[in-house]
Specification:
The chain has 360 residues and is of the alpha/beta class. The protein has 14 helices and eight strands. The model has no long low-confidence stretch (mean pLDDT 90). It is an enzyme of class 5 (isomerase).
Length: 360
Amino acid sequence: MENKKEMRKWLDDLGLDHPLVIAGPCSAETEEQVLKIAHSLKDTDVNYYRAGIWKPRTRPGNFEGVGALGLKWLQRVKEETGMKTATEVANRAHVELALEHDIDLLWVGARSTVSPFIMQELADALEGTDKVVLVKNPVNPDLALWLGGIERLYTAGIKKLGAIHRGFSTYEKTKYRNIPEWQMAIEFQDKFPDLPLINDPSHITGKRDMIFDVSQTALDLNFDGLMIETHHDPDNAWSDAAQQVTPDRLVQIMKDLRIRKESDSEAEYNAQLSNLRAQIDILDGQLIETMGKRMKVSDGIGALKKQKNVAVLQSNRWNQILGAMILEGESHGLSEEFVLKMFKAIHQESINHQEKIING
């Protein structure tokens, strides 16, 4: 993709003094609900009012959206509040109906991004459009697949493009609904620094009380905006109730977020420093999480040794690990002294865990 700067012109033209904000309910449920939420957001930092019209669910039998009827409700939102509107599209029919109802921003969901066939169908349907089109990351952490979907749209003559980072599915149980894999978002920015990148903390967290922290991390990493699901009665929402916030809470989140507004060289330094520190914070969290997983494995080893009446300390095994890790550390620019200190501490903690099991 050449001349990438033209892809963010739509965002620059908004002239915002705050991050782009896309907000509204996960699903359009009733006309009254859609309009009530919209009117409560019209005088806030919200730039695009979002509502899911077609809702692809993981399993059948759940609420799958009101369909094309909801597009008329979004038209009323624009007429009554002046806000621009946004919704998800997943096939040619969705695109045609959304364009017919003058929806301003269309996004492609994570389940669609995984399929080059779907992305090509959408690119063909959207060819030459002047609407904003955003692409969510695929459900699996595949950067090439994400970029490939965007490239298909760009090749179809769509210039108002952007990406949405909504986290990635994992079989492991974590505190997130979808793990952020921040490093992939950072790599995405490195490859396409001029492509607007929006964070979706609602889908990353799955919990409304975590949305602020994830939003702040995204801004520290120089994301251009946020997509936050907002509902006037989130506990009774028809879909994804746990991750939606009230309009009042959204306003408070935007007030509390630390947003850099300086424009001089010192501000650039502070921005770069904050970005690097945010990356370190993310990696530190991953280190602690990995150490926790390692100690759980040690607990299992302790239980096995107790069952077989085997001594905790196995010197041969320990020496093998230490030798291998020193060589591995050197290949990553780590000194032998550092690797020795680190793995001696890890080994001692592992012994402590196993002794607790054996003496339990």
